[in-house]
């Protein structure tokens, strides 16, 4: 018997056969139902096929550092009047097929911060990597790029407007090993699927986190009602300069050398993660592949399934999900 996730994937595939899909950056809407139950298992042989077989989805070819990228965004009009999310996709980063940059940004207080960050953050990061600093690491480049992006928001007077951010940089080294570098502020999250399980590569900077609570209080702020100074649920963000003393813009960073056990990574805002665990999200994506005839991962369909599941499970925020296949 098929699992609930598989049945939902099947219904969605039938729907999209009847209706041409919208561009990836458009809002996606629909009435797709998933009954709640435990996630089903996915075989190791499927994981091996996903890691070996390249895809040509979204106009990408087999020579790139990533095989395919899917992005779905939904404003969640039942709960939100405005769409404050943004994203960045650069698959030929710095003019090289061996590099790619991706980002998902979740704004608050308006779109001013999101629109600035999605235009400038990757440019600052590229500038740092291309600088004359000897042996600068991607982690150092991320830290400086986030600092510069935050400075732009200060110049733009983003005092009560801000955005969370999760970004990743994928590259090939001289030995053709694939590297994944992640940086984030706030509660936008990166989850790598490793051997069928979710491996979190980011850190949720939230007012409810014990370490962040301690830091905020030491820096002169306070936690009121699980919010920084009674206002923000996140303890780090770009922008929000009226509270910059305690709401830092310095990112958490991580680095993984990718292997055949790592078929994809999910970047998403808290509209997904508030209602779905890391493992569950990875299983849902894998089941979209298990349920199609070619047993290959359709990243655009996978991102749509995750967004629709988040809405069905009662997410009350804008929902943006990016699935990147290696």
UniProtKB/TrEMBL annotation:
Top-level division of the source organism's lineage: Eukaryota
Pfam families: PP2C (PF00481)
Keyword list, A-Z: Hydrolase, Metal-binding, Protein phosphatase
GO molecular function: metal ion binding; protein serine/threonine phosphatase activity
Compositional bias (Polar residues): 38-58
Spans annotated as Disordered: 1-61
Biased composition (Basic and acidic residues): 8-17, 26-37
Alphabetized SUPFAM superfamilies for the sequence: PP2C-like
Domain PPM-type phosphatase positions: 68-326
InterPro entries named among the record's database cross-references: PP2C, PP2C_BS, PPM-type-like_dom_sf, PPM-type_phosphatase-like_dom
Similarity comment: Belongs to the PP2C family.
Protein name: PPM-type phosphatase domain-containing protein
Species the sequence originates in: Rhodosorus marinus
